[in-house]
Amino acid sequence: MNAPRRILEIRDLSVARGGKAALDSFSLALDAGETVLLLGEADSGKDELLEVLCRAGESGYAAGGTIAFGDGTAMPAGRRTVPPLRIAYLGNPFLAPLNPYASTVSQLARIVAQKQVAPASTGREELRAALDRFAAAPSLASLARKPRELRAAQLAWALLACALAQRPDLLIADQSFAGLDPTASQALAEALAEEQKHEGFALIYAAQGLLTAARLRGRTIVMRRGKVVEEGDFEKLAAGQCHAYTRTLFQALPCLSPPSARGAARAEPVLQVQGLVVQSRNRRDARDGITFELRRSASLALVGEEGSGRHALVQAMIGLSPLRSGRVALDQVDISLLSPRMASRLRRRIAFIAGAEEALDPRMTLWDVVDEPLRAHLRLPRAVVAGHRENALKRVGLFSHEGRTRVGALCAFDKRRLQVARAIVSAPILVIIDEPLRGLDAMAQTIMLELLVELRKQEGPAFLIVTADFRVARALADDVMVLKDRKLVERGSAAQILRAPKDAETRRLLSAAGPGWLYLPSFRAPQPDAAAVPGAPAETTFLPFQAGKML
User: What pLDDT is recorded for position 548?
Assistant: First the structure.
């Protein structure tokens, strides 16, 4: 029997960044068809490792050790080399991997042509063939649009097709499916695993969340502060027979019990919606009107995939888009009766926390972001503003940061905490939270959830959560409304829907998100009734994890 073809061998790779060791004595041997999962926090050294591998033909970074591609001789890291095999890179659609103002198909076809050393027409045809292999992928004609005009899932499928069209020997994926709707992430991970099985390329996947890692499976390397903490099979590590830091990562899954809604029914209404129809191009039916009430200190999650109408519903509710049917009252005031100026003044009592990069102006300083609601809306003196600001920054753990630091220089986690601080100082009656965990690693997700739960507990605003992930809804919401095609398909308490979903769309979303459960085929452990987790394969067993402890 022939030995597997060696694709990559790294020996004692070390990388320095800013005079500090970012990666220390990393070694790896990778064969064709093998999958390696890299787990770790933002500063674990994953980024430096991928950068060295992707820039193998360049110089300019301080690295030590040797790297050998294929069966070639090991070459010193950091020296200009030409790998004797094809390496494809699969990025994340939220990190702007393409020029947002140029045609998507022209950019991707050019990449394929360059990697295959072929004409542009050949690259285009190879891209078309790769797209045709996936039923959920967009057509080549639809990719004539600019990347910023595509949905995140569409761009993710296009990037995957581009990577596979290069016919790689080694595919390097950098958190490629992080931030996508759970159903899209699941479909992409399954497609990638199937293509790897068929084509036999090696895969290195830097995972941000554990669900994608569980779907891909393979040899797992846990990293922390530039060093390898542990290495082993994913299922064995998830079973708990692992290093304490590895257990911490697995226990950091965003899975908290729904907050208690006791007393919420006696509070005053914050948001009242009656017969609201989310407009679509092809349908306008008053029978599809949505009616609900959200009271102070209560929380409601709008759960649905991209394009389900979640954001259109929110925009209509707060008066940012025309209200053609139904009635919306904010703080018991009908917004349709207000002038634009009065409606804008009423919206000052709403805070927004979002996972989008453009949620904050990158030119503003940390102090400016927190001060803005107090100065613009309340016109408070500087001394009073400074006091409120310091208190808010302390509560979110940002008080030690330099206040004049620009938002653009902050990491994703600090930007998210900064939004929570701004919400605290504005004393809102309603907080709209849109995918708050997008772009965060497992540990940061847990901390972010705890900050939001604390905000609701201490300040008492109503929460309106917009998400496609039932784990987020379970962590933050008392009640859930599931939307599909701009229609309400199911509603009820979070506990009720998690226990017994009625609609097929709800069961599909629950199956993709795993409602806080980590899918581990063939692992056997004491567990509750598997029927409580809808949509799961019969042979699948479940490990329950909760922030801070294993259940």
Answer: 31
